[in-house]
């Protein structure tokens, strides 16, 4: 698996880090052993734009009823920062930011997109965080790939009194970001996360998004 | 892999551009995707065959779950909203619940067989569970049949007893898990949208 850049907007330091990573071959950073490393990807026409300022395509501007954080991405519907221990430099406390980017209808389905950003800027230490089972949740333990996945995120329609659980494919895998057990978010990096659900009725204009260990983002607009 | 090599070259080029311009953007912009293959959104715009996704929607109180794919829809109703404990007599709220299921069968123009499967938890004898779950399935058919009579479907019933629990009835030490047992006491109504 090659390390690919999604966007060419990196600062010099990040770019150098990417170059260093390229030099090690298959994207394996020191300390990751042989586990598959997350890919830093190039622009992919089949994927929606990532959640960088101005890059969120048709995402609606933050709703008045949402809870945008001043430190959140301007394109996000809602943001929350939380603190974790670095995976390898365990005495380091890392500030991670979780942004809900969009809830977008796609026919009978609805896609949730979110990002997880490691806000650390100190490049002199190994300030990676391993996402692991943080977002597994407990709702879809029936699926095969739930360990280290985004499958635990549920959407609630408080008006329709329904709870939407992540969809599965015919192989009983969640239709969501997986392989998070072997995914590390390095200082300054942003991890894209997504999950697919049944679309709520057309009359539903907002949903609550509940993320394991982060709580509930209320009344986010559906686009 | 040529694709990977090409991407690496692209990454190198973009990386160098980043250095040369020393973009002062404060936003961290290195973006990683954990599993491009599993990403639903990455399927957009591709002409590959659409995988048959199954979705799950629950009522907020958890007593009703709908599993749906293109070819099959299953409504799972907790026994407690349909029946008194250890009984196949329908409760007052049962009719309203089953009317809602019948409406789906009609609205989605179901064809073929509507399957009604009763299930119990692992309490009591297996034989008792089989009989109770079959009687419950038949009681449900009794309500559904006249409501979907205009539809070209036939309704079959089965008592599955304690087979196929949705969640483990007991923990590893053999202690009952009451909330799981409650979810295993259920009736599943499965049909094929037309």
Mean pLDDT of chain B: 82
Q: In angstroms, what separates the terminal alpha carbons of chain A? A: 34 Å
- C-alpha end-to-end distance of chain B: 44 Å
Largest interface: A-B, 80 and 53 residues
Give the low-pLDDT segments of chain B. Answer: 1-29, 35-48
Mean pLDDT of chain A: 73
CATH class of the largest domain in chain A: Mainly Beta
* CATH domain topology of the largest domain in chain A: Immunoglobulin-like
CATH architecture annotation of the largest domain in chain A: Sandwich
How much helix is in the residues of chain A?
Answer: under 10%
Which oligomeric state applies? heterodimer
Largest sheet of chain B: 6 strands, mixed
Question: How much strand of chain A?
Answer: 25-35%
For this entry, give a set of tags.
heterodimer, A: about 220 residues, mainly beta, Immunoglobulin-like, four-stranded antiparallel β-sheet, about 30% strand, B: about 190 residues, alpha+beta, six-stranded mixed β-sheet, 7 strands, globular, disordered N terminus
How is this fold's topology laid out?
The complex is a heterodimer of chains A (223) and B (194).
Chain A: H1 12-23, E1 39-40, E2 78-85, E3 93-106, E4 109-118, E5 129-130, E6 154-157, E7 162-168, E8 184-185, E9 189-198, E10 206-211, E11 215-221
Antiparallel strand pairs in A: 2-3, 3-4, 4-9, 5-8, 6-7, 6-10, 10-11
Chain B: H1 2-21, E1 30-33, E2 54-59, E3 64-68, E4 73-78, H2 94-107, E5 111-119, H3 126-147, E6 153-159, H4 178-184, E7 186-192
Parallel strand pairs in B: 5-6
Antiparallel strand pairs in B: 2-3, 3-4, 4-7, 5-7
Helix pairs in contact in B: 2-3
Please provide a written account of the structure.
The complex is a heterodimer of chains A (223) and B (194). In chain A, the strands form three sheets. Chain A has a four-stranded antiparallel beta sheet with strand order 2-3-4-9, with no helix packed on it. Chain A has a four-stranded antiparallel beta sheet with strand order 7-6-10-11, with no helix packed on it. Residues 1-70 of chain A have low confidence and may be disordered. With 223 residues, chain A is mainly beta. Chain A contains one helix and eleven strands; from the N terminus they run αβββββββββββ. Chain B has one domain (55-192): 2-Layer Sandwich (60s Ribosomal Protein L30, Chain: A). Chain B is 32% helix and 23% strand. Chain B contains four helices and seven strands. In chain B, a hairpin with a 4-residue loop joins β2 (54-59) and β3. At the A-B interface, α1, β1, β4, β7 and β9 of A face α1, β1 and β2 of B.
């Amino acid at each position: 698996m090659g390390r690919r850049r999604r966007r060419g907007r990196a600062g010099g330091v990040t770019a150098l880090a990417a170059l260093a990573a390229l030099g090690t071959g298959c994207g394996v950073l020191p300390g990751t052993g042989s586990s598959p490393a997350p890919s830093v990807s190039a622009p992919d026409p089949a994927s929606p734009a990532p959640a960088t300022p101005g890059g969120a395509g048709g995402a609606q501007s933050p709703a008045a009823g949402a809870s945008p954080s001043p430190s959140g991405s301007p394109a996000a519907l809602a943001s929350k920062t939380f603190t974790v221990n670095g995976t390898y430099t365990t005495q380091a406390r890392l500030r991670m930011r979780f942004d809900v980017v969009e809830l977008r209808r796609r026919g009978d389905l609805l896609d949730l997109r979110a990002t997880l950003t490691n806000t650390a800027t100190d490049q002199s230490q190994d300030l990676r965080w391993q996402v692991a089972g943080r977002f597994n949740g407990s709702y879809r333990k029936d699926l095969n790939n739930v360990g280290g996945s985004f499958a635990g995120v549920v959407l609630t329609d408080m008006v329709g009194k329904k709870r939407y659980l992540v969809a599965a494919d015919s192989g009983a895998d969640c239709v969501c970001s997986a392989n998070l057990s072997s995914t590390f978010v390095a200082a300054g990096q942003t991890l894209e996360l997504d999950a697919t659900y049944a679309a709520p009725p057309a009359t539903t204009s907002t949903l609550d998004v509940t993320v394991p260990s982060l709580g509930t983002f209320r009344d986010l607009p559906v686009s | 892999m040529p694709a990977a090599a090409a991407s690496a070259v692209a990454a190198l080029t973009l990386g160098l551009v980043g250095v040369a311009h020393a973009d002062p953007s404060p936003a961290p912009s290195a973006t990683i995707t954990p599993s491009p293959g599993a990403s639903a959104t990455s399927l957009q715009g591709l002409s590959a065959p659409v995988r048959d996704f199954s979705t799950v929607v629950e009522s907020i109180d958890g007593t009703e779950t709908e599993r749906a794919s293109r070819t099959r829809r299953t409504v799972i109703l907790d026994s407690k909203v349909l029946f008194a404990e250890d009984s196949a007599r329908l409760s007052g709220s049962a009719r309203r619940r089953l009317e809602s299921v019948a409406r789906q069968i009609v609205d989605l123009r179901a064809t073929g067989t509507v399957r009604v499967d009763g299930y119990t938890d692992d309490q009591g004898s297996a034989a008792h569970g089989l009989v109770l779950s079959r009687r419950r399935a038949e009681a449900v058919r009794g309500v559904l049949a006249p409501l979907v009579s205009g539809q070209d479907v036939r309704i079959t019933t089965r008592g599955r007893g304690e087979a196929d629990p949705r969640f483990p009835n007991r923990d590893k030490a053999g202690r009952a898990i009451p909330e799981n047992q409650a979810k295993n006491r259920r009736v599943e109504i499965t049909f094929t949208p037309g």
